[in-house]
């Protein structure tokens, strides 16, 4: 059932992501969109982290499902960092726009690590999941340290 839902939701999310920048009539909408994507991503990463830290039982199928959702979400928020979206209730530092190339590299590094996380989760091996989760977390932290307000 989870795979069926994922199979239905994934294409929809990807279709929505492509024209995302055109969907934002106001910069505040882009801010809200990217924050929402990051919030949902954080929820699924937290579930994986709980398994990796032994705070929740390791369930290979649940780990794979969460990693798949993180992978599906990973490409979505970046189009919502367009010019003029540095307004309102944003946690983004000005460096997102003043160091655009560095920000793009950081976002791509994160997305690359998420692909590895998804592959590790598919193995059903907790040690591989832990290693990939650690690397993904480091890519998140690197981006947050440079581009997210405290």
What are its keywords?
7 helices, elongated, Four Helix Bundle (Hemerythrin (Met), subunit A), mainly alpha
So how many helices?
7
Number of separate strands = 0
Roughly how many Å is the radius of gyration?
16 Å
Oligomer: single chain
Can you tell me the CATH superfamily?
Cytochrome c/b562
Helix share bin: over 70%
Q: What is the fold-level CATH name, i.e. the topology?
A: Four Helix Bundle (Hemerythrin (Met), subunit A)
Distance between the termini: 39 Å
Q: What value does the average pLDDT take?
A: 90
* Strand-pairing-aware structural class: mainly alpha
Return the domain count: 1
Largest sheet: none
What fraction strand?
under 5%
Give a description of the structure.
The radius of gyration is 16 Å and the shape is elongated. It has helices at about 1-15, 20-25, 25-50, 60-75, 95-100, 100-125, 125-145. The chain has about 150 residues and is mainly α. The model has no long low-confidence stretch (mean pLDDT about 90). Helix 1 (about 1-15) packs parallel to helix 4, helix 4 runs antiparallel to helix 6 and helix 6 (about 100-125) packs antiparallel against helix 7. The protein has a single domain (about 25-75, about 90-150), classed as Cytochrome c/b562 (Four Helix Bundle (Hemerythrin (Met), subunit A)), CATH 1.20.120.
């Amino acid at each position: 059932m989870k795979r069926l839902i994922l199979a239905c939701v994934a294409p929809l999310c990807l279709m929505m992501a492509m024209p995302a920048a055109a969907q934002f009539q106001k910069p505040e909408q882009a801010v809200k969109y990217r924050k929402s994507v990051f919030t949902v991503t954080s929820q699924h990463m937290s579930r994986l982290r709980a398994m990796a830290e032994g705070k929740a039982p390791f369930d290979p199928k649940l780990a794979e499902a969460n990693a798949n959702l993180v992978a599906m979400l990973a490409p979505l928020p970046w189009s919502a960092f367009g010019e003029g979206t540095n307004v309102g209730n944003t946690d983004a530092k000005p460096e997102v726009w003043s160091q655009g190339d560095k920000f793009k590299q950081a976002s791509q590094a994160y997305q690359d690590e998420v692909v590895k996380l998804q592959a590790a989760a598919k193995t059903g091996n907790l040690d591989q999941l832990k290693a990939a989760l650690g690397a993904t977390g480091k890519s998140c932290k690197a981006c947050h340290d440079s581009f997210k307000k405290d």
